[in-house]
Fold this protein.
Amino acid sequence: QQPVQSPQAVILREGEDAVINCSSSKALYSVHWYRQKHGEAPVFLMILLKGGEQKGHEKISASFNEKKQQSSLYLTASQLSYSGTYFCGTGAYRVQTGANNLFFGTGTRLTVIP
Amino acid sequence: DVKVTQSSRYLVKRTGEKVFLECVQDMDHENMFWYRQDPGLGLRLIYFSYDVKMKEKGDIPEGYSVSREKKERFSLILESASTNQTSMYLCASKRQGGDTQYFGPGTRLTVL
């Protein structure tokens, strides 16, 4: 159930743009994006709940294509502080217990250099 | 601010030892999670607990068990540690129905 992310790693110069993709073999109901800086805990960036929804967070935005079962994270005019590993998470709801959890992707390591 | 703490940042154990990893959160969250993080494999869910004494298996529960006797504390137990359990272990919590998971700093476990 783990979504697949691409690319696995990317190196950017400051000011360049990047796109990180997250694909699932199962239907998506929600997509969550997290960033983990080196040596730190993952931190929530944003959630997309509806197909076709787009969200923005500073110069980081995301889209959700329910039909294609995928989401993309867009980083524009990258800054050094954007370096880290980005994870997408797909929501899963367990009917019997009412509990919900995430299945996180394989991660994309982003390095921004001066 | 939500705070999730884990008992150790680094832990070294021998094969066959019983290992306890502790996680404590201070925000009265109902849901707590244990993940392991390995290069190229991302974050994989081991177990989660949606309430006290309640648990659900994640993707990779084999070789692990969990305990949640109090709401704020969630323990991951390796009954007999093996070298393939060498990994970074991350704990997270969230409120029931909430979207955001709050992660602890992680425990890097090495099994020799």
Chain B has a mean pLDDT of 94.
